[in-house]
Design a protein that fits this description.
It contains 30 helices and 25 strands. It has 967 residues and is of the alpha/beta class. The two termini are 30 Å apart. This is Vitamin B12-dependent ribonucleotide reductase.
């Protein structure tokens, strides 16, 4: 444990005479932590998924030998600083860690955090050991900025404020732009802005907050967070009693209908598509701030008043249940809006005398004062699981102390995007410690995620983490003083501490895993209350649960944040290049923990590798199935299982939880209503839902729903029939078939889509025009081969009956199903399916440029010309020389039987080389798809084309570490 030695107590952040005595956790006196690790050099080469060109290359980078290829690649491409190819470029994890930790240690020395230089050295060594051993990680902005020539922005989360003045609204636009440019996200509550039902002082009608959301959304879509760092992420909140609340609720659902209509009309509406930018409100998460008054009205079926912004008087009465229903309906259609429980949030607020909590960051885990920020760090829980499946409580306590100390130091040297945010953050020093790998920890110890035992362990760990964090904050207050706003908020802050401690007292241990954790948590809360009463607290906020997107990959975590595992089968990158499919390495450990013998474990793991689930696995008892339940798949965790896990940890967090409650496609609006209602009853602070396939761009049932909705609308709008309708028989000329001659010109194209090979022969009429298509899929089984054969006959008959090729192209491009992914065609680098590729290739070969341009199909040369500002139509026509193609075709070597000494996994570690594009796209989401036989609900990464995986309420790319907005 770390000891505190202090003289006079510093106040208002003033420095005291003595600092902290730091004790070692993992390091050895006289030995540098780098010298206790075996290092190796690797090559990192990343290619562009669009055209196969190399877009990043750095050779000879240095990492510990136990770091995965993926973690090393992500750190090299995302976090190393300096121009590639120059001496200033970082080339070793040592340089990166030295750059960051050096600033922390130096600042701690200069500001009196340490009792002696020896304590500073121990702090320095322990921090470096923890980082290189992937025990924890700071959030991404720390790695981006600390120790560089750029401003030392360490915060990932910001909350802004907007008043009912045009100057304030324009300032909001500006502040968001600065934050996005720096690679971070922000949230804002627009409820102070007058509604469209209220008057301006000039006599006109106000435009309302939803109209101002358009400008902010366009700005976020343009900036995209500086391009290289991450896309802009933002949260927009509106109070449930705002008169424009119904318009706000329908905002994104209405735009989703627009996306469907444009897509069906042939526009490119996929993520990153050239036409998606015409749709509004797509760069923000929307949430409704609901009050206890509103939720009670929903339960009782009472009316609810919407209030004017300036006077506070009720200007409209609405049915509370109807409004609640519209929220659930919109979320059912497009996953927005989420809900934030206002009274619960403010009941746990440590600084109510300064102001209410009105908003959150984009992922809803940081909730505190307006114009404030929070820097995050997350602990890798699996690192504390001993070989005997017990939790290393003493090491966890010491590591939490170390991290909180470092995070508080960072506020001292940090830079902020605006002066208002700087003032608030330095005055209240909000921190956000959290964890990752909870799902893997529970599985490894034989606990089902949705079980009393799993929730007891999660609650105990969270309580211990926050109790130690605030106890350390009280110790820091004795050394360098409490936060500046503490004196005016002392009583409410101590009240919240007592609420945390009381919640801890309600926990009951379930087994040997959580019993010692809970015992230590109880002791830590008692010490926290004692020291807080004496010293105050250094930090207004200490803990939350972030999505841990990129940093989760950096730490080689199997699961992110509080999430369960996504799938039981994953793809692992190999040091020698390529990738291999593996069963989650937590599963064998879990099976051994459950009492299975080695031969049983081997058989079960082999079964899971083949099927992707545990149902009917040989020798696996049905009562153990639940241990291996995942977020998706054959045995997906029930929606309320996610809600109950959040409820088990929420009372022990200063902030909230970034997590999405996943619902199956078959879920109803009533199911979403129930989730929102139970979230309020269980004491959550925020909640977001996602119904499988509710967004455009997902493969299932969208077209059917659109056509059904259109048919229903037409039925409603159709005029009533006349009493005696006049029946007229109109004879429509039928098309006649124009057969091809026995000898006709044709071109055969060999293609590969997502690793699946095929051949397409396209025959034309001698005069002009495509008339026949033959398709052959290699090694795809009799069913798919037969379906593709029948499909090609149907297309050929249609062409011969006069159906224009561009009609087929408009209908079949962008169709999504497996196999899908990278192709070997330089003109069509990515295909959503084999059918998508086929009709893009046919369009390129047989349609003029003008027709293809209207369909959004361009060759590689035409795309390059567009980027150069040239007219693609002016490019010379390409004549296919079939003889030259035959002469230049590469000779394929016959397959060589694999020898044991040739296996990649048995070779000694060597440099990592570039992987085939298809292999690079593999990830846990892809593994899940391969076993489900359907496409998972996740977008493709805009950087490398990998299928992304959920991380909290956002997505993270396992290929390159890019996220959709979270650290």
């Amino acid at each position: 444990m770390t000891e505190t030695v202090s003289g006079s107590v510093g106040r208002g952040g003033k420095r005291a005479t003595k600092g902290l005595k730091i004790k070692r956790i993992h390091t050895t006196p006289g030995v540098h932590p780098y010298d206790q690790v075996r290092w190796e050099h690797r090559d990192v080469v990343m290619t562009n998924w669009r055209d196969g060109s190399v877009n990043f290359e750095q050779r000879g980078v240095e990492f510990p030998d136990f770091w995965s290829v993926n973690a090393a690649n992500i750190v090299t491409t995302k976090y190393f600083r300096g121009a590639v190819g120059t001496p200033q470029r970082e080339a070793s994890l040592k340089q990166l860690v030295d750059r960051v930790v050096g600033v922390y240690t130096r600042t701690g020395r200069e500001n009196g955090y340490f009792a002696s230089d020896e304590d500073a050295e121990i702090f320095d060594h322990e921090l470096k050991h923890a980082l290189i051993h992937q025990i924890f990680s700071f959030n991404s902005p720390v790695w981006f900025n600390v120790g560089t020539m750029s401003p030392n922005q360490v915060s990932a989360c910001f909350i802004l404020s907007v008043d009912d003045q045009m100057e304030s609204i324009l300032e909001w636009y500006k502040e968001e732009g600065v934050i996005f440019k720096g690679g971070s996200g922000s949230g804002v509550n627009l409820s102070r802005i007058r509604s469209s039902k209220e008057l301006l002082s000039s006599g006109g009608t106000a435009s309302g907050p939803v109209s101002f959301m358009r400008g902010a959304d366009a700005s976020a879509g343009t900036i995209k967070s500086g391009g290289a760092t991450r896309r802009a992420a933002k949260m927009v909140v509106l109070d449930v009693d705002h008169p424009d609340i119904e318009e706000f609720i329908q905002t994104k659902a209405r735009e989703e209908d627009k996306i469907r209509a444009l897509r069906d009309a042939g526009f490119d509406m996929d993520l990153g598509g050239k036409d998606i930018v015409s749709v509004q409100y797509q760069n923000a998460n929307n949430s409704v701030r609901v009050s206890d008054e509103f939720m009670r009205a929903v339960e009782a079926g009472d009316p609810f008043g919407l209030r004017a912004r300036l006077s506070g008087e009720v200007i409209e009465q609405v049915d509370a249940r109807g409004l609640f229903r519209s929220m659930a309906q919109a979320a059912w259609e497009c996953a927005d809006p989420g809900v934030q429980y206002d009274d619960t949030i403010n009941d746990w607020h440590t600084c109510p005398e300064t102001g209410r909590i009105t908003a959150s960051n984009p992922c809803s885990e940081y909730v505190h004062l307006d114009n404030s920020s929070c820097n995050l760090a997350s602990i890798n829980l699996l690192k504390f699981l001993r070989d005997d499946d017990t939790f290393d409580v003493p090491a966890f306590v010491k590591m939490t102390e170390l991290i909180i100390t470092a995070m508080d130091i960072s506020i001292t040297f940090a830079d902020f995007p605006t002066e208002k945010i700087a003032e608030t953050t330095r005055a209240y020093r909000q921190l956000g410690i959290g964890y990752a790998n909870l799902g893997a920890l529970l599985m490894a110890t034989g606990h089902a995620y949705d079980s009393d035992g799993g929730r007891a362990a999660a609650g105990a760990i969270t309580s211990l983490m926050t109790g130690v964090s605030y106890r350390r904050s009280a110790e820091l207050a004795a050394v360098v003083g409490p936060y500046q706003g503490y004196e005016r908020n002392a009583e409410p802050h101590k009240r919240v501490m007592r609420k945390h401690a009381a919640a801890n007292d309600t926990l009951r241990p379930m087994d040997a895993l959580d019993r010692p954790i809970l015992a230590e948590a109880t002791r830590q809360w008692q010490e926290c209350l004692r020291l807080g009463e004496k010293n105050g607290y250094r930090n207004a906020q200490a803990s939350l649960l972030a999505p841990t997107g990129t940093i989760g990959l950096m730490m080689d975590c199997d699961t992110t944040g509080i999430e369960p595992d996504l799938a039981l089968v994953k793809f692992k990158k190999l040091v020698g290049g390529g990738s291999m499919q593996i069963v989650n390495q937590t599963i064998p450990r879990a099976l051994r923990r459950l009492g299975y013998q080695p031969e049983q474990v081997e058989a079960i793991v082999e079964y899971i590798g083949e099927h992707g689930h545990v149902m009917d696995a040989p020798g696996l008892r049905p009562e153990h199935y639940e241990v291996f339940d995942c977020a998706m798949g054959r045995r997906a965790i029930a929606p309320m299982g996610h809600v109950r896990m959040m409820a088990a940890t929420q009372p022990f967090l200063s902030g909230a939880i970034s997590k999405t409650v996943n619902l199956p496609e078959s879920a109803t609006v009533e199911d979403i209503e129930q989730v929102y209602l139970e979230g309020w009853k269980l004491g959550l602070k925020a909640l977001a839902v996602y119904r499988d396939n509710c967004k455009v761009g997902q493969p299932l049932s969208v077209a059917g729903k659109s056509s059904e909705k259109a048919a229903a609308k037409a039925a409603v709008q159709a005029p009533a029939p006349a009493a005696e309708p006049v029946i007229q028989v109109v004879e429509v000329p039928r098309p006649t078939r124009r057969r091809l001659p026995n000898q006709r010109p044709s071109t055969t194209t060999r293609f590969t889509v997502g690793g699946a090979k095929g051949y397409m022969t396209a025959s034309s009429y001698p005069d002009d025009g495509l008339g026949e298509v033959f398709l052959k899929m290699s090694k795809q089984g009799s069913t798919l081969a037969g379906v593709m054969d029948a499909f090609s006959v149907a297309i050929s008959v249609g062409l011969q009956h006069g159906v224009p090729l561009d009609t087929f192209v408009s209908k079949f491009i962008n169709m999504r199903f497996e196999p899908a992914g990278m192709t070997d065609d330089p003109d069509v680098r990515m295909a959503a399916s084999v059918v998508d590729y086929i009709f893009r290739r046919l369009a390129l070969d047989h349609l003029p440029y003008e027709d293809r341009a209207a369909l959004g199909v361009f060759s590689a040369a035409e795309r390059a010309a567009q980027q150069r500002g040239e007219d693609p139509a002016a490019l010379p026509e390409v004549i296919i020389d079939t003889a030259a193609l035959a002469q230049s075709a590469p000779i394929e070597e016959p397959p060589v039987e694999e020898r044991p000494e040739d296996r990649v996994e048995d070779r000694p570690a060597g440099p990592a080389v570039a992987e085939p594009p298809a292999a690079r796209r593999n990830g846990s989401a892809r593994a899940l798809e391969s076993h489900q036989g359907r496409t998972a609900d996740a977008p493709l990464c805009m950087t490398c084309g990998t299928k992304m995986r959920p991380a909290g309420s956002c997505y993270v790319c396992e290929g390159c570490g890019s996220t959709s907005g979270c650290s």
